[in-house]
Design goal:
Elements (H helix, E strand, L loop, with lengths): L1 H23 L7 E8 L9 E4 L5 E3 L5 E4 L5 E8 L6 E7 L2 E3 L2 E3 L23 E6 H7 L5 H4 L6 E5 L8 E5 L7 E5 L2 E2 L20 E8 L13 E7 L7 E9 L3 E9 L7 E12 L8 E13 L3 E15 L5 E2 L18 E16 L4 E24 L8 E3 L2 E3 L1 E24 L4 E23 L9 E22 L4 E19 L5 E20 L4 E12 L3 H5 L10 E13 L3 E13 L1 E4 L11 E4 L2 E15 L2 E23 L4 E11 L6 E9 L5 E10 L2 E2 L9 E2 L2 E12 L6 E9 L7 E11 L2 E10 L4 E9 L1
Parallel strand pairs: 1-7, 1-8, 12-15, 37-45
Antiparallel strand pairs: 1-4, 2-3, 2-5, 5-6, 9-14, 10-11, 12-13, 14-15, 16-17, 16-47, 17-18, 18-19, 19-20, 20-22, 21-46, 22-23, 23-26, 24-25, 26-27, 27-28, 28-29, 29-30, 30-31, 31-32, 32-33, 33-36, 34-35, 36-37, 37-38, 37-39, 39-40, 40-43, 41-42, 43-44, 44-47, 45-46
């Protein structure tokens, strides 16, 4: 607890320092730079970004295409002007008392891929909290760990790894919300599993090497396709058009026999129209936890045809994973003596899955003001996990007892496989309108269908009874159809005031095998209709600062287990989230600062209480009233010419107003209930902080100290101090050295020293309690993360 309090004081001091730097920094009030941005035909271009290279200073053109930058230091500066659909311009100008720079942007020779995701991404006028992560940002950390670990230093984000080293099954939480509440899209196409609503990055190893940008929206965010966003939206765009041919290879290796290799190549733009990009990757690791090995393979191939007004692109990518299971966790009593303990010892206790994606993406300019984006997609997933089971009941597998003379055998050791065989297909679209004046708007949506086969096989049994090889003991098909339609509009009422409205209707139709009131398996169906309105205001105070506020509603259906392990009478209701956000942004030459406050109120949030329902399952139940409230602070400071500091911190309060826990009492055969008030929502730290201190002593060399602090987390919703994850503070050191020799474009060496202070910490876990022989017992299981370890990489690009 002392450690937690100390770090809170430290972060508060950092935040205060950033604010003081902003308020007390040098002011050059007499020097300004202003001008207009127009297209080649003389039309004004509102919304163009005007930034000063090497500083945090920047602004956007208003409805008349005009901009003005004040409080500038006199002397030469590099000005960069950019707008989606136009070629960016970079120009040097001498800042004086009333410097003027008018810029003309030429239409892009070919349409850029970014237009496809623009309808589902937030912008400076959306009134929501978001972070843009570029390909350059990802590249610095991309040494083989999964994508969640590459996003580790974005605000309010916590990562975990079953194997303890960031390879294999990894997890992500944003504002305390887990992956089932985080919407993920790839080029605007839904990626969350339709039934569990989770995201499994292990099925796309080294996918980050084919990503050009990611936007992380926190809270309800803007309307998008796919699963409901209750904690965040992660909007991923794959490779954007690269006009020049290239070839690239990356090799990295490190602790736990981790090895990543890949080869990338692209043709560049052939005959001003055609392009082909490709990647082949392999990642292997033994993992930190015993036997938690991973053998991951993937490829990405993309071909496109581009013109000045349209493009069509086919993306085909696939991932194949084989991981030894490390899902069981480490018992609390072994944390000090055997942190790498794995309860699974069967030599083929593995998860095996392959996922193939096909995306046909197109964009067409209908007129100067209108654009149509349309995509078709298909995903094929198939695989199984294999388990050794000791003394399972034959009856659970539909097998009669084995009778040998006067002995009746009802239990047996066996090996089973649980299969998934699914198809996901559909289409998404957006029609974008830009008047290049006061109004921009989008009309979009999508129709997607999931067809999943769930079945289990017994592949070996000590006593097989009447079963045969690959005895199928359950067979369960499900179909889910998801349709959504949204409309968004931005209107510039005055040069300083912009309003944003976003309305979405989403329907879900889910057919599945569940239980009826007589506890018989029957096919069931559920139809849900959600209305998700959002609105926001943005007010520009001056060329340095702006404020915003927004309100949004999100709705989310229960997941597969909630449906299949219940009856219509006990089936939980959908969840609803009401999200208020407000923030302030500012930027000067040497400092960028953002403060975002939020209040997220839940109705019928689904949580585990330990209660057994009418079919004997420990299902999630709706709790009527819970909330998250917090403030997110971000700052970037140019402390010296060679020293840059990026820091963020989230202070939050996450509460269930009334919570009832149910505990099995084996002495009575019943459940005992316990009531609580104002308890913490599980896995919701009240403090998350990240820091990147970057030093560039000479050209091409960057040394970084990367720090992450995560406060105390409870394993359930009781706020019981005996069921928690202790706070942890992890420090990494990263060294990047880049050369540009004559015979190649780039040669980069990277060393990443993880957890250099050898912090012993756990980032995930679970807990359960019971009463036996009059005594209450709680058992906690944890997922320890690796101590001091390293990764080293070599990047070559021609």
């Amino acid at each position: 607890m002392k450690k937690d309090t100390t770090w809170r004081k430290y972060v508060c001091l950092v935040t205060l320092t950033m604010v003081l730097l902003q308020l007390c920094g040098p002011v050059w009030a007499q020097f300004t730079l202003s001008g207009t941005v127009k297209d080649a035909e003389g039309g004004v271009l509102p919304g163009a970004a005007v930034t000063l290279e090497g500083t945090y200073k920047g602004t956007f053109t208003d409805a008349a295409g005009a901009y003005r930058l004040t409080s500038l230091k006199p002397g030469p500066v590099q000005v960069r002007v950019s707008l989606l659909g136009f070629e960016p311009v970079q120009q040097s100008v001498e800042v004086g008392q009333n410097a003027v720079l008018n810029v003309t942007l030429a239409k892009s020779v070919v349409v850029m891929d970014e237009v496809v995701v623009s309808a589902t991404r937030a912008n400076q006028k959306s009134g929501v909290a978001y972070t843009d992560v570029t390909r350059k940002d990802l590249k610095k950390l991309n040494l083989g760990q999964d994508l969640p670990f590459l996003l580790n230093f974005t605000p309010s984000l916590v990562t975990t790894s079953d194997a303890g080293a960031g390879v294999g099954y990894t997890g992500i939480r944003i504002r305390g919300s887990d992956a089932t509440r985080i919407n993920v899209t790839l080029n605007g196409i839904p990626y969350n599993d339709a039934e569990s609503q989770g995201t499994f990055w292990v099925n796309m190893p080294d996918f980050a090497s084919s990503v050009s940008s990611i936007q992380v929206q926190r809270g309800v965010g803007t309307s998008t396709n796919g699963a409901g966003a209750f904690g965040a939206t992660v909007n991923v765009q794959t490779n954007s058009l690269q006009k020049e041919a290239y070839a690239e290879s990356n090799v990295s290796a490190g602790s736990f026999n981790t090895l990543k290799t890949n080869i990338l190549a692209g043709t560049g733009l052939l005959n001003n129209h055609f392009v082909v990009d490709a990647r082949l990757s392999r990642v292997v690791s033994d993992g930190y936890i015993d036997r938690a090995s991973s053998n991951l393979k993937s490829f990405y191939v993309s071909g496109g045809y581009y013109t000045s007004k349209s493009f069509i692109r086919l993306n085909v990518f696939s991932g194949q994973e084989r991981t030894y299971q490390s899902w069981g966790g480490v018992p609390e009593n072994l944390l000090k003596t055997n942190r790498t303990f794995n309860p699974y010892t069967y030599d083929n206790e593995t998860d095996n899955y392959q996922q193939d994606h096909y995306q046909l993406i197109s964009s067409t300019e209908l007129s100067k003001n209108w654009r149509l984006n349309a995509s078709l997609h298909y995903t094929k997933g198939k695989g199984y996990y294999e388990q050794f089971r000791e003394d399972d009941d034959l009856a659970d597998y539909g097998l009669p007892p084995v009778v040998i003379r006067d002995s009746t055998i009802r239990q047996t050791d066996l090996v089973r496989r649980r299969w998934l065989d699914n198809d996901f297909y559909g289409g998404v679209f957006s029609i974008d309108y830009n008047s290049y004046g006061k109004l921009t708007a989008n009309l979009g949506g999508g129709w997607n269908r999931y067809q999943g086969k769930h079945f289990g096989e017994v592949i070996w049994a000590q006593f097989a009874s009447t079963g045969s090889i690959r005895q199928r003991y359950y067979d369960n098909d499900a179909t889910k159809t998801d349709f959504n339609l949204y409309g968004k509009a931005f209107y510039q009422f005055t040069p300083k005031l912009n309003a944003y409205v976003d309305l979405q209707v989403r329907t879900v139709d889910y057919s599945f095998l569940g239980f009826d009131n007589q506890l018989r398996n029957v096919q069931q169906d559920d139809q849900l209709v959600f209305f998700n309105p959002k609105a926001g205001l943005t007010y520009t105070l001056n060329d340095r600062s702006s404020v915003y506020a927004s309100y949004g509603v999100g709705n989310k259906e229960p997941n597969r287990d909630d449906y299949t392990q219940s009856t219509p009478a006990s089936r939980p209701k959908a969840e609803t989230l009401y999200d208020w956000e407000a923030g302030y942004k500012t930027g000067t030459d040497r400092l960028a600062f953002t403060a975002n406050g939020y209040y997220m109120k839940y109705r019928n949030q689904l949580v585990l209480t330990g209660q057994i329902n009418d079919v004997g399952a420990y299902n999630r139940v709706n709790i009527p009233d819970s909330y998250r409230a917090g403030i997110e602070l971000e700052a970037g400071a140019l402390l010296a010419k060679a020293l840059r500091w990026n820091v963020n911190a989230t202070f939050s309060r996450n509460k269930v107003k009334n919570f009832t826990e149910y505990v099995d009492n084996y002495d009575t055969g019943e459940q005992q209930s316990r009531s609580y008030r104002e308890t913490d929502i599980s896995f919701s730290p009240d403090l998350i902080a990240g820091s990147q201190l970057l030093y560039t002593p000479v050209k091409g060399l960057e040394v970084g100290l990367l720090s992450k602090y995560v406060g105390k987390q409870y394993l359930d919703n009781t706020s019981n101090e005996g069921r928690k994850l202790d706070p942890y503070f992890v420090n990494d050191i990263r060294v990047i050295y880049t050369l540009k020799p004559r015979f190649m474009n780039e040669l980069t060496f990277t060393i990443l020293l993880n957890n250099v202070l050898n912090e012993r910490y756990e980032s995930n876990g679970y807990s359960f309690s019971y009463i036996a022989e009059g005594r209450n017992t709680t058992e906690n299981y944890y997922y320890p993360q690796a101590g001091r370890n390293f990764l080293a990489g070599l990047h070559i690009r021609f």
